[in-house]
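Here comes an entry:

___
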Amino acid sequence: MPRWAKGDAGAQGRRQDDALGGAGDAQFFAGAALALLDHILHSGPDVSSAGKSSAEPPFAGALRQRLALRAATACARIARLREDEPALRDAEHLASFDAALTPGGRLHRLWRLFATRPARLDAPFMRAAADCLEVPPHIDCEALAVLVRESLTTENPLNAATRVSTAALHILDDAPQIDAEIFALWLADLVLARRLGWAAPLPLLATTISHPSMRVANGRRPHPGDPDWSLSVARAYARAAQEAYALAGELSRRSAMLSSVAPKLRAKKAARVVDLLLADDCVSPARAAKTAGLSDRAARRLFDRLVALGAVRELSGRANFRLYGL
């Protein structure tokens, strides 16, 4: 990413009014970073042709799911839950299919919705998202869907994201405050993605809105009900898009390495495991074995081979119950 698109890089760790300036500057840096990210999402199989394809790169699924984990981790901190990133990853990928979700696990499922099913703008999809939180069943999900569709008529995508996240709080008035706030952040990403023409949303706003550098004048984190929420949204999207762009670059290099070694893999059905790795944050040997029709031993040996070739990383740091990803 060019330096002119980053703001004051030396101030990135300090307050964002130092790094990204006022409203006009923040909107500029957010727009620049989102435009660069948009090119990555329209690169097709070859990222060297960024912005020239209608297709997403092969690692788009892994990018969405890794951002979903970051968003869930940030929201868990907002909700003052004890689950950190490794705990959320374990709960999603190692728990049995019939295990009850923890509060943090439900947050993770909310953000994973962006990559696991088509993001529709109707009441059933709003209800599916609300069910991941403690949102009361009588909340008017049809009103939320109408609000989302109306927000898409706002010309400026950042203003559309600001509008929907602010107005949603009125519809979610009976929900717990933290859940309503998290739902509003989720809706903002949904609307932004539709306005930018992305195939599916990227979890962005929640990954940075609670960062200490984003705190407003009274020292607390920004809230969708704040008078200067639009400025906080612009600054948060600028930082989030810059970080997502960097992550996309890293995943692009790793996916290229994985694709280059794939022909060397001896295990039958290894191609199915490669597809799983490109589509998700991580994969367990048990899931790979079940999905690809391998034995557990064959799946573990395949991951050992991929690690030795430098194509994937072991993410858990454990000797057992390992998880592998780009």
About this structure: The longest strand covers residues 313-314. The chain is about 60% helix and 0% strand. The two ends are 21 Å apart (CA to CA). The mean pLDDT is 89.
